[in-house]
Design a protein that fits this description.
This protein is α/β, with parallel strands linked by helices. The protein has helices at 11-28, 71-74, 92-101, 114-127, 164-174, 194-197, 200-204, 213-222, 240-246, 249-258; strands spanning 82-86, 106-111, 132-136, 149-155, 175-189, 226-235, 261-270. The protein contains 10 helices and 7 strands. It has a 7-stranded mixed sheet, with helices on both faces. The protein is globular and about 55 Å long.
């Protein structure tokens, strides 16, 4: 039986729902765990993302098809940079960022799901990387020092944080003055009907947690960032079988009638050179 969002009234409950969902995905992708398509009931969200196949540093075992863009492709990472990946999962974007930052750089992956951290650390040991680390913590309350990062990246994760403004305030805090981020996320044009917002699986899949693109960009601006630009924008079409899997007949009609535009965007912004930390 599907869990309805109307039963989840607090940020803590929302976070627990997301944590449980992504913990199960990590277990399903661990040797010995169940696989997508088995009785585990894993939903394939790969239709949301872009292919990493052409990215240098790509590690297939670390790609769980949970992203919606290629933020590292646009992040302007330089040799020696310190990079933080928010919602690092099994380490996919961390390992690509490490390739860009080189042996003198440092890459920190932040995730609040222990099972994902375990999987990422196993991948790191297997690859023999020494300038990569994974830290447990929430994006809206990061256990990281002020002014630590030259670059922040994230791939379809800020969307899952209930308090997006707090998440971007924390991103501002950990960036060095003059540092920047490149973040891929899902946004909408139009309004998501309440019936869809109540669907937990569509929230976990980065859809019903989306907000209008204007509101999304306004949050970034309000947090003090400058040079805000959309580096890439791509429309997402939800396959009919996914819609039917999570919406009943009445909800499906509401979805079709809403003519909702769902987009993957990669957004760039800078922390001003003269910015105070907090």
């Amino acid at each position: 039986m599907l869990l309805k969002m109307k039963e989840l009234k607090t940020e803590t409950q929302l976070k627990e729902m997301v944590r449980d969902k992504y913990a199960s995905i990590a277990v399903e992708n661990t040797p010995g765990g169940a696989c997508c398509g088995t009785d585990a009931g894993c939903t394939d969200y790969s239709f949301i993302g872009d292919s990493y196949d052409s990215q240098e540093g790509y590690v297939k075992d670390a790609d769980l098809n949970l992203g919606c863009g290629l933020p590292t492709q646009f992040a302007k990472i330089k040799e020696g940079d310190t990079v933080v990946d928010l919602g690092s999962g099994a380490g996919n974007d961390v390992f690509i960022a490490r390739n860009e930052a080189g042996p003198t750089g440092r890459v920190i992956g932040l995730d609040f799901t222990q099972e994902m951290l375990d999987l990422a650390r196993k991948n790191t040991v297997k690859l023999g990387f020494e300038n990569v680390e994974f830290v447990k913590g929430d994006i809206d309350n990061m256990p990281l020092k002020n002014d630590i990062a030259d670059v922040v990246v994230s791939n379809c994760v800020l969307n899952l944080v209930p308090d997006k403004k707090k998440a971007y305030e924390e991103t501002f805090r950990i960036l060095k003055p003059g540092g920047h981020f490149s973040i891929s996320d899902v946004v909408v044009e139009g309004t998501i009907p309440p019936e869809l917002k109540e669907q937990a699986e569509m929230y976990a899949g980065c859809v019903s947690g989306s907000i209008p693109i204007e509101a999304y960009l306004q949050i970034i601006d309000d947090c003090g960032f400058t040079n805000v630009e959309i580096q890439k924008k791509r429309q997402i079409e939800i396959p009919e079988n996914i819609v039917k899997q999570f919406l009943d007949t009445g909800q499906e009609k509401i979805y079709q009638d809403a003519a909702l535009g769902i987009f993957s965007v990669t957004v760039f912004a800078k922390k001003p050179e003269d910015a105070a930390c907090c």
